[in-house]
Design a protein that fits this description.
The protein has no helices and 13 strands. By secondary structure, it is mostly beta strands.
Amino acid sequence: MVRRGRLVVLSVAVGAAVSGREIVVAGGYVEDGSTTARVELYDPAKRTWRQGPDLPEPLNHAAAATLKGAAVVVGGYGAGGPTRTAVQLAGDSWRPLP
């Protein structure tokens, strides 16, 4: 689904980075206070949002950066506390980093 406007799921404590020509907004807390694995992708040229592949686990306060043109999400807090998660967006999925 592609839509104009704002994110469908409002969230805070997200990780955000550029991947290709899109801005990736990953994880965070949603309105009910729970942590989400949801990923939203924004295309600034088209001014549209679309849902991306969920993170492997729900995360909040994760760091995000761009590595070789693709978004990377590292660390953050999951259901069990701090994580050592490190994943890179590869097409329509996340692949673990060493």
